[in-house]
Amino acid sequence: MAPQNVASPAFVLHFPDAVRVAGETIQGRVELDVASAQDEGIENLSVNLKGSIVTTIIETNFDGSDTKYERVIELIDIRKSLWERGTAFPDPGSHMLVLPFKFKLPRSLPPSFHLSVLHHKALISYTLEVVGSRPGLFRKDRMIRKVFPVLPAASPEQILAKKSLKKGWEGDWRTTFVERKMRPGIWGDYSHVRAEVKIPDLESFPRATALPLDLSFETRTKPMTRTAAPVDKHNKPLFPAPPTLSSDVKLFFEREASIYAEPKIGTAIDSFETHCGFGDPESSSVKSTINEAEWIPDPERKDYGVWKRSVRFETSVTLPFAPTFSTETIECKYFLNFAVSFPGIGNDLELHVPIHLDPAHACPSFAMNYADVPPEGPPPAAS
């Protein structure tokens, strides 16, 4: 009979909450009350290590019905017998047997992962199952099921990059920028806006580690006759004024996953708040520098020119998500997305920065924090 998720007082699983690293040996124990096991009719006890990738795409048909496409890839499926009735007994005066177990995780395991967007789902999960078998008609097996997170092991180079970031980055920086012409209405000359972000010049970044970033904006008004300051007669900033508050800047971490559930292929995109200070008027974690406005004269027209204004924001962002990975049925990519809205129609400025996340812990690791890895459910979505 197939095991059912029915708890039993006859046995208890001891397996501490911790992030496990691919390649390490995991250990735990089961405490069995032999007397209770006999009362419940448990004939044998086993522990199973399982891991799988499940991808699902649901397609809506013309008649409104849904067709479900699903692909399952087994990563691990190992069973170990711990006890059979009549083969082991507790010490005199005790009903308890302590049954230790251990498993060696394969080095090639992908990270734990959970995504659910509209008609696309993807799950990489790892579980321990302790099953008390109860043969007989209408008798459900007893089972304890525990899900635990797994991450790939970091290479020495990745560990070194993490140490460099933690000490304070002293290397080169990489710049990504976007430039746009815009105007507040449908007529008139164009103004100019440039946004750029600087991050450490690394090919990839360790997950769950503070990543410093430097974001700056520069705006130039449309050509105009010189004024005393970049404000109009009502003392309002001339278009387009750069954002001077970090709360005016929105920063989201975007996840893009290609999902394969033969014969269907789909792409799912979701985004999450970064909690690094941008978009939060109460935050003090972003350092801002507002430069004085500068008049740039037009070399060809006397008394004409533009006002240049610029602002710089400095902060750091921590990304506690699964490392970037690719499997037979899931390919996951990440981006940092910055957005600022300027007055007028279609004047939103967006800057997309690809981010490749690395594992951050070697194998084995003895000081990992369970909170560093997303839970089995999805992280909170951005509002």
UniProtKB/TrEMBL annotation:
Gene3D superfamilies: 2.60.40.640. One of its GO terms (cellular component) is cytoplasm. Transmembrane segments: none annotated. Residues 13-152 form the Arrestin-like N-terminal domain. GO terms for biological process: protein transport. InterPro entries: Arrestin-like_C (IPR014752), Arrestin-like_N (IPR011021), Arrestin_domain-protein (IPR050357), Ig_E-set (IPR014756). This is Arrestin-N domain-containing protein. It comes from Mycena venus.
